[in-house]
Amino acid sequence: MKDRRHLLYATLALVGGIIGGAASNRLLPGEGIASAAARAAREIKAEKFVVVDRNGSARGVIQVNSRGVADIALDDDTGHPRAELSVSAQGSAKVGFYDQNGAQRVTLGETPSGRSGLAIYATNGRQIAGFTVAEDNQSSVTLYDPNNGRARVGLGVAANGEPALVLFDQNGRDRAELHVSLDGHPGLALADANGKSIAGLPVSEAPQPQQ
């Protein structure tokens, strides 16, 4: 639980509760709300906050962990992590969601290099789908084999606007590609298990008849 992260609204609720509790406990007989507010703490500092339910069970943590990751983590009432929000020491940020068994299922984030993306995981913990956008605006969707984690389908648009579809075999090797060039010409390429091209179908536009 020390290294799990969670959603931001828990921070606001926790800090609001602490400030409100501190102010009410310090009210003096006849003291008005305005004068109490003037005496309220303006800043709270701590390395870690733990949010507990009415039974005293931990349900969330706000902390900077031993790896320098600032995180907010929220658990369900069985103690399993269900949501996270974190920022690493290097500047990458992510939001993650977990299933009832505590297994990661969805992650949304951005790296310091400017690549952002969404990853979806199977029940066995392997990534099965991903959508990414690079700093140069190149985008791609990748689907993975849930049994071995290897890429099987890739669909992308290059930074210059050229789209392409790639199919991989069970070993992750590129076996078929379909693309359209920037000038509008489509192409198809097939490869064997060693990556050697075995067939291709470049298509050129038919010449227009002379007027």
Helix content: 10-25%
Could you give the distance between the termini?
76 Å
Order of helices and strands: HHEEEEEEEEEEEEEE
Widest sheet: strand ordering: 1-2-3-4-5-6-7-8-9-10-11-12-13-14
Give the tally of β-strands.
Answer: 14
Major sheet summary line: 14 strands, antiparallel
Secondary-structure-based class equals mainly beta
Backbone CA Rg: 26 Å
Detailed description of the structure:
The protein is mainly β and 211 residues long. The protein has 2 domains: 1-99, no CATH class; 113-204, Outer Surface Protein A, domain 3. It is 11% helix and 41% strand. The chain has a 14-stranded antiparallel β-sheet, covered by helices on one side. It starts with 8 loop residues before the first helix and ends in an 11-residue tail after the last strand.
In terms of topology, how is this protein built?
Elements: H1 9-25, H2 33-39, E1 48-52, E2 58-64, E3 70-75, E4 81-87, E5 93-98, E6 104-110, E7 116-121, E8 127-133, E9 139-144, E10 151-157, E11 163-168, E12 174-180, E13 186-191, E14 197-200
Antiparallel strand pairs: 1-2, 2-3, 3-4, 4-5, 5-6, 6-7, 7-8, 8-9, 9-10, 10-11, 11-12, 12-13, 13-14
